[in-house]
Each structure stands twice: as C-alpha cells, then as structure tokens.
C-alpha cells in the first residue's frame, strides 16, 4: 500500500512539472523510472571512500629490535650524566632498549610539561630536554619505552584523598610510607592515560604500566578502609572479583585509548601471579591482563621469591628459579588465543637485605644464568632491573 501511494504522489508531482497538456501515463512511468535510476546513481557516488585510521606521527624513527633487551633508567639518570654512560653500555653490548621513568614511583612527572598542562604542578625537572633525550635515543637506535607508575601515587593521593583509601580520616599508607590511588575510579584511569598519551606524543614507542594493582595485602584491610567503588558497586561479584575486574578493565581501557598513537602497551606484573588463578588482594589475574596487552613483563627476580618451585633459597639459584618460572608462564600463555610477547624483568642487583646465607652477590655469572634459562625456554626478550642503574659489565646478552 505504501509503495503504491508513493508511486501515485510521484506521478502527480511530475504531472505538475510537465503540464496537463503533455501528460500520458506512459510518459510519466518512463520519467519516474529514469529519475529513480539517476537518484540511485547519485547516492552511490556520495558514499565516501574508506578512510585509513589516523595514527600519530612523532617525527622520530625507531625500529622494533630483533628482540628487546633493555635496562631500567630513572628520571635522574635520563636527565643526568649517567645517561651517557648508559648509552655507551648499550652501544657496546647487545642491549638495545631503555625503560625510562616518565611518571615515577612517587607520582611525579620526570620532566616539565607545557605551562598550560594540568600536570605542571606534579612535575620534576629531572629530564630537562625531552626532545634532546629522544634525539639521542634515535641516533643510537635505542628502543624507547616509557614507564608509568599507575596506582602507587603518593602525590595524587595526598592531593586528592577522595581518589585514595582513607583510614581514620587520613590517607592510608603502607609500611614504606607509600600511598595508593583507587583502581575502581575512572577519574584515576583518565589521569594516568592522559600522561601515557603525552609520552606517546613525545616519541616513545611503548607505554609500560607499572603498579597496575591494589596495595599488597589489600584483602586484609579491605573492610577497614574507606573508599569509593565507582561503577563496580552493582552485581553479585565478591570484592576479589571486583578488584580483578577493575584492574583488567583499566588495562583494556588504556590500550584502547592509546591505539591512535601506534604504541605497544605493556604491563609489569608480579611473577607469582602466573602461578595462581589470581592474586586475591591486589587484583591481578595474569591471563586476563595478558589478553589485553602487547607485552607482559613479569618481575621474576630470584630475590623476590619464597621457597617456590621446591627451591628453598631462590636467590642462590637464579638459573633454576627462572627455568621453573618460565615453564609455568609458557604453559599459561600457551592457553591464550593471542598471547602477548613475554619480556620478564630479571635481577641485576644484590639482595643483601635477605641476610647472610640467603643471598649471593649478583654479577656476570648470575645475570647470564637468568638469561640462559629464558633462552632455553623460548623467551628471547628481557629487561634488567637495578634501581641505581648500575649494570654488570661484560655480560653476554645474546648467547648465540
């Protein structure tokens, strides 16, 4: 019925255009048909060509290495005299990448942003010239990774207690005097993602998020602290699942927001998270996080393990510890349809705080033992951690 009415009205329209004297039904039928064809042709021409997805271009050129073999670099080192020493180390070895603090463990930016930046008041001028930094990395073909500490953030917590965890009217801090901000809150997510976007604009090719978790032991103080749960208030999930969902959702959200910049996204995660279904207090589920990143970097320093894998004193047995861990991680990642690149953090420091008989002095032999264990288990990428950025000389990093 609708089509017939449309046809009648169309015919009447053309009658008014052509005039009564020239009207014949055949003429109108022919005119209508021609007009419909022309309209169809016009509409087809108006369909836009598919547009390629916008990707930000920093102006720097960095190639992904054969495999990332990197070192940790603080803001102090990146902006100071030690930076040249670290460049020399990379130039003269098979190392090829730097993980540089952009937002540090306290919550400070390690460089000074533009004067109109909302992050100006949390910045420290450790890195005095970011353009000079990136150009030096480009000249020496050093793959640049920006480290952003997310939820451990004393600066933001003290500035905005409503974004943190409160106990007895004060921001709660752990035994080291560190405060955390709340992973449940999207405002906290956006705060960190905006910093990550700026790092991508500076020219970094990868954003590495660290402390993507709740405070250690949170399950023991969950009920004692006052905090908001944002959009995670509804549903039948228990507190453990809510924490796991919040942490996982942040990672997925950050990765989506960073897509236009063409950067990889990586996350640092406790090594033991791969050995259990999920860490109940801190909200880390290894498999779920791994499905939302390009790179997963487990912190597998032998000094940080208890008597795991049947190894009573892991720090004394770096090769054995890393071997056993690698087997577990390979098994877990092997179950995923699209597993990320595995790039663990390994130990290049001496853990004397463990006490006599529980640690060994780490040097060339100990660092190479960890690398060999990774290679033997098919893991070809790794990062070296030394908080003071003093790395062992004469290490064979490729073992060809």
Automatic annotation (TrEMBL):
Alphabetized Pfam families for the sequence: DUF4015
InterPro entries listed in its UniProt record: DUF4015, GH
Domain DUF4015 as annotated: residue spans: 70-391
Signal peptide coordinates: none
Name recorded for this polypeptide: GTP-binding protein
